[in-house]
Amino acid sequence: MELLKEVLEKIKPSEKERAIVNAVTKEIVGIAEEEIEKKGVSATPRLVGSIAKDTYLAGDHDVDLFLAFPLETSLEELRKTGLELGKSIGERLGHYEVAYAEHPYVRSTYKGFEVDIVPCYNVKSWKDVKTAVDRSLLHTEWVIKNINGRNDEVRLLKRFLKGIKAYGSEVYVRGFSGYLTELLIIKYGSFMNLLENVEFLGKSKIIDLEGWLRKEPEIAYKTVEREKESPLIVIDPVDPRRNVASALSWEKFGVFYFKAREFREKPRLEFFFPPKKETGDYKEILKKKGTHLVTLIFPKPELIDDILLPQLERSAKGFEKSLKREGFEVFDLNWGYVERAFIMLEVDRVERTKVLLKPGPEFLSERALDFYAKNQKVWIRGKRLYSEKAVKESIVDVIEELLAKNQVALGKNLREPIKEAEILLNFVPPELEEEAYLFLSKEKWNIKG
Amino acid sequence: MELLKEVLEKIKPSEKERAIVNAVTKEIVGIAEEEIEKKGVSATPRLVGSIAKDTYLAGDHDVDLFLAFPLETSLEELRKTGLELGKSIGERLGHYEVAYAEHPYVRSTYKGFEVDIVPCYNVKSWKDVKTAVDRSLLHTEWVIKNINGRNDEVRLLKRFLKGIKAYGSEVYVRGFSGYLTELLIIKYGSFMNLLENVEFLGKSKIIDLEGWLRKEPEIAYKTVEREKESPLIVIDPVDPRRNVASALSWEKFGVFYFKAREFREKPRLEFFFPPKKETGDYKEILKKKGTHLVTLIFPKPELIDDILLPQLERSAKGFEKSLKREGFEVFDLNWGYVERAFIMLEVDRVERTKVLLKPGPEFLSERALDFYAKNQKVWIRGKRLYSEKAVKESIVDVIEELLAKNQVALGKNLREPIKEAEILLNFVPPELEEEAYLFLSKEKWNIKG
Question: Which residues are involved in binding Mg(2+) (chains A, B) (predicted)?
Fold first, then answer.
């Protein structure tokens, strides 16, 4: 298809880029080998990830350098020696910092390339796997062995998924991982063929490239059973215990499903390179819908997205629950950050009339006589005295009171910043105008946009 | 006290009135005896109630004529013969109609007196009691034997309770019955002494004039245990199984408690003969409180108060519950009838913005493709497709929809009339203006009014 060629021209690394990538990675591996030798460590440097598999997109080349230790190495030894070795490689590369996943690892940059230096075990099979990253070695090997020249098809699929915002297995995306796209291409042979079979894929649901359901039925069926609520079950060719698509959400699979159908009917470049969504005036939307926007803005804490975004989500849902309890209807939620972090709540109203029923004591008591004497109007329901007054309450006051009384479930690291948040009614600062429009108009979620 | 004399002048039947009452009741009993003889029924006519006990208020004299059958009579026989006999007495008196309580009985009028003709068993002791009305014979006898000339004190107490709206044991009043006022006077000797002891009464709580707790401890303590949530436990002098005050609510006892204290401090004629509550403009109250009034008006069904008012209460509470579920806050309820029956709801708002979230089908289906095609904006949550639109909804529309869908719990006999009800917003017809004012201003419940 002419269109796909046009896309490939944009996303396939040029010969020149490939040469640079190859040269640089070779240098990096060389430096690693030197450091290993110098230190006398028994580890092997291994390139993994999309560069190793040659499935990276033009201009998008992070180097994943794994340091594979013998299986006999103890976990402490691996952590300690691995980190030390990483640091000295990082030093040689220029500069580094230590990052934390299951184990600490080193992040560095070299000649404009981001380099992650990650210690792991030198596993030969899934039975050897001890840490979460070990499997990457096997993934890389398996893909290289099976990709069979369809690397560009993977690139098309990756770009397509990026275009429709369904790429990435991060907890705040819950889309398709790089490895999953590779397996889908290996299964279906080409990007277009995958798209042709998206209904079949959704219905058959299970992909088992290595025939684990035959070879290791007990383990593989356990995986299927455990993952039965997932939209896809792709049994990892290198590990029957794992569903490669376990992070994929129904939402993101659904977006892919509909976009695949649309692309088949009307293939357009925009699927791969979507124009910025058209935006408009959020105030118009508010007027049209008759709803209201409450925005909390506060300084973005120094947290990586994997931690910050789930905590923002949790906090937004905490506000939803607490405000519902206070009699406000919350129609939808939005969160994120631009310069500062924000939580947006679309609500039915910004003021409530509250008739404050003042419950008094039960009436056979001294305090009851007091209450009776002090209030102008008093009546009895059950054994208790009551009086009342009516007040108008702004949702801002209600939120401030909820926060002061710790009656909103908030993300752990956001409690303090949210207490200091600015609370804006039907108004956002310029940095959030577009976000507010996309949220209120639903264009943010609209698949048909 | 001079004031009490003044009250008694108004409420004590004059000699002339007494003579008429005596003459008329004698005639009625005479007619009953003739009919019994004519029919050859073995029943004895017995006068019970406030005329028999001489505790009636001037101008307030309904005749309770009981037809006491021997204990051997079967229940069917009693019902049948009792009703027939009642009808022929009623015919002799002029006209009659049949009314229904536990058993059918006859209501008639004679020379301006209302006459209830009720068949019962001629019981001598609580152990004989078979039907709910039998005990009245024993009550009348006991009061006559023990009243000891304090009849006018009973009259003062009755009038006082009427003045503060705490008289009557009907289910929609839950106040002091006539028999309970008599027992309270017999216990405390006088109206003023009862008032002096109201705190003590509230705390000691138990009155046992016949010493049942000694004579029949097992039965009497069971009564106390069963009634322990009542504000008063007055063990029936003629039946240890019964709390004479069991119908008395905490509310009505509370009103009595506070009014008794106030009267002791500042005795005034108004306690006995309260002026009509001062009324005002309900629209002003609405404006001041910022709340809203929803009134349903419909033709009053032909039902006695004992049935109609509890059903109106049940229906009002049904609306409260359903509207809360729909997102409206209901602050207070009122019900009753003037010319027509009404239910009033004080609510926080009369319009809601409702973002109609249109849930579609799950997306791996033919219907999902349809939904996707037909809606302008579509997104996915979980496996499901969604679209939305926002609408403004009036509480009137919401109520009409709730009624159309049978989603309000209504009193059994009110379902049809309420479906035809007019629903008024922040406006009532002239007949209800005063009611609306008293309700919204809380003067209706205000004890201090």
Answer: 62, 64, 116
CA distance A263 to A268: 7
Query: Nearest C-alpha of chain B: how many angstroms from A402?
Result: 19
> What's the pLDDT tens digit per position in A41-64?
999 999 999 999 999 999 988 999
Q: How many domains does chain B have?
A: 3
Q: Find out whether B294 and B182 touch, Cβ atoms under 8 Å.
A: no
> Is the Cβ pair A381, B291 closer than 8 Å?
no
Whole domain around residue B220: which residue ranges?
A: 147-271
Domain shared by B294 and B267, yes or no? no
Q: What is the pLDDT of residue A79?
A: 93
pLDDT digits (tens, 9 = 90+) for A284-332: 999 988 899 999 999 999 888 888 999 999 999 999 999 988 888 898 9
- Are residue A300 and residue A448 in the same domain, yes or no? yes
* Partners of residue B386 on adjacent β-strands: B359, B379
pLDDT of residue A449: 67
Beta carbons of A381 and B251 less than 8 Å apart = yes
CA angle A266, A267, A271 (to 5 degrees): 115
Residue A325: other Cβ atoms inside 10 A: 10
Question: Where is the binding site for CTP, in residues of A?
Answer: 50, 53, 139, 158, 167
Interface size between A and B, measured as CB pairs under 8 A: 134
**Of B250, B271, B292, the domain-final residue:** B271
Give the domain CATH number at B219.
1.10.1410.30
**Out of A375, A380, A390, closest to residue B254 by CB:** A380
* Cα separation, A88 vs A90, whole angstroms: 5
Q: Please check whether residues A35 and A94 belong to one and the same domain.
A: yes
Distance of CA B22 to the CA centre of its chain: 30
Nearest by Cα to A82 from A118, A107, A49, A128: A118
**Are B173 and B212 members of one domain?**
yes
**In whole angstroms, what is the distance from residue A10 CA to residue A31 CA?**
32
- B342, B401: one domain: yes
- pLDDT > 70: percent of chain A: 100
Q: Within 13 Å of residue B263, how many CA atoms lie on the same side as its CB?
A: 30
CA distance B190 to B199: 16
Sign of the C-alpha dihedral, residues A425, A431, A437, A442? negative
In this prediction, residues A255-272 reach a mean pLDDT of: 95
Give contacts of B348 with chain A, Cβ < 8 Å.
327, 352-355
Do A387 and A424 reside in the same domain of the chain?
A: yes
Query: Which ranges of chain B have pLDDT less than 50?
Result: none
Q: What is the 3-state secondary structure (H, E, C) of chain A?
A: CHHHHHHHHHHCCCHHHHHHHHHHHHHHHHHHHHHHHHHCCCCEEEEEHHHHHCCCCCCCCCEEEEEEECCCCCHHHHHHHHHHHHHHHHHHHCEEEEEECCCEEEEEEECCEEEEEEEEECCCCHHHCCCCCCHHHHHHHHHHHHCCCCHHHHHHHHHHHHHCCCECCCCCCCCECHHHHHHHHHHHCCHHHHHHCHHHHHHHCEECCCCHHHHCHHHHHHHHHHCCCCCCEEEECCEEEEECCCCCCHHHHHHHHHHHHHHHHCCCHHHCCCCCCCCCCHHHHHHHHCCEEEEEEECCCCCCHHHHHHHHHHHHHHHHHHHHHCCCCEEEEEEEECCCEEEEEEECCCEEEEEEEEEEEECCCHHHHHHHHHCCCCEEECCEEEEEEEEEEEHHHHHHHHHHCCCCCCCHHHHHHHHCCEEEECCCCHHHHHHHHHHHCCCCCCCCC
Closest approach of B251 to chain A, Cα-based (Å):
5
Tens of pLDDT, residue by residue over A331-368, are 899 999 998 999 999 998 888 877 777 889 998 888 98
Domain end, chosen from A246, A271, A296, is at A271
Instruction: Decide if pLDDT at A392 tops 80.
Output: no
